[in-house]
Specification:
Keywords: Signal. By secondary structure, the chain is mainly beta. The protein has a single domain, classed as Beta Barrel (Lipocalin), CATH 2.40.128. It is built from no helices and 21 strands. It is elongated. It starts with 6 loop residues before the first strand and ends with a strand. 42% of the residues are buried.
Length: 309
């Protein structure tokens, strides 16, 4: 199974509804696709991710003072696709479905539905990965994208209290991003760097989400057997969220900076890709009333289709 492989880690391209929010366990921590090979093939798949956040002991339901908020849980399933509409161009589409749970001492609230659909387009600016005789592989992509406000964002609990913005399955606002992806590989070892800046908008409730900066770096290894290929990776990611605004007033308990360790393993069996990963918080600089993120994990499966160029 000898191939010329350039690898792109898509860690920072897919956030898990990770908007800075007001007293809720929003998805702080980058979404993870694993390591996607540049086979010049289209690919489509499904992935699942679970994350949870523990609330401080002073967080209560503002409509029921006897009910303490304990934990937020997020179950997110995404259908996604990478498609090559033209040479050097690639299009990513993501359609999420979320089930969010809030655990309190007096009740459990669950909301679910299709989330905000996102589309990103990348252009291959540099590609020195075509030659099978070269030990060094180098790839640079630049791109941008948008997220559409397709998910519900005004759901309430059974006390009729509006749930926090970051707990909703949707945002109600458009967002736009610019990103850069660089991969450098020497033989079977490689290093990937991702940078992304997201401009978050305001919804009709005049809730203005803070902008977001994401940066990630990962070390990976490409190995092969007669029947399959495998690619373990380990990396570190940083996310910074600006504070939110509502009614032109700064939201006191919003914003923060998160640093995560990500460990993943991908398996390639002919045209099938299976990946699994875990993210472990290393540092969280957040307001005292914000819940703390815990380790999260996920698994995905995808299928390559179309001919290599």
């Amino acid at each position: 199974m000898k191939r010329s492989v350039i690898l792109v880690i898509a860690i920072s391209l897919y956030s898990i509804n990770s908007l800075a929010c007001d007293i809720c366990g929003c998805g702080a921590g980058m979404g993870y696709l694993g390591v996607l090979p540049q086979f010049n093939q289209n690919i489509a798949g499904v992935r699942f991710q679970y994350s949870n956040f523990l609330h401080p002991s002073n967080n209560i339901n503002s409509n029921d003072a006897s009910s303490q908020v304990l934990e937020d849980r997020f179950f997110r399933t995404e259908a996604w696709m990478r498609y090559y509409p033209a040479d050097r161009w690639q299009l990513f589409l993501t359609v999420p479905y979320s089930v969010n749970q809030r655990l309190e001492t007096q009740r459990t609230t669950e909301i679910q539905g299709v989330g905000d659909i996102s589309a990103n387009i990348n252009y291959t600016l540099v590609d020195y990965g075509d030659s099978i005789t070269s030990d060094w592989k180098n790839l640079l992509l630049i791109g941008g994208g948008a997220t559409l406000p397709s998910g519900k964002y005004q759901q309430r609990d059974d006390t009729k209290l509006m749930l926090p913005a970051g707990f909703q399955v949707g945002s109600g606002a458009f967002s736009y991003n610019l990103h850069l992806i660089h991969t450098l590989r020497y033989r079977t070892w490689g290093l990937n760097t991702n940078l992304r800046y997201t401009f978050n908008g305001e919804n009709e409730l005049t809730y203005d989400y803070g902008n977001q900066l994401s940066a990630a770096m990962a070390l990976f290894y490409w190995g092969e057997t007669k029947k399959f290929a495998y690619l373990p990776s380990v990396g570190i990611g940083l996310e910074h969220f600006d504070q939110d605004y509502q009614y032109d007033q700064l939201k006191e308990y919003s914003g923060g900076t998160f640093v995560n360790l990500t460990i993943g393993v991908d398996l390639y069996i002919k045209r099938l890709l299976i990946n699994t990963f875990a993210q472990i918080p290393l540092s969280q600089e957040i307001p005292s009333a914000q819940p703390a993120g815990r380790a999260n994990m996920g698994i995905g499966v995808a299928y390559f289709f179309g001919k290599e160029e």
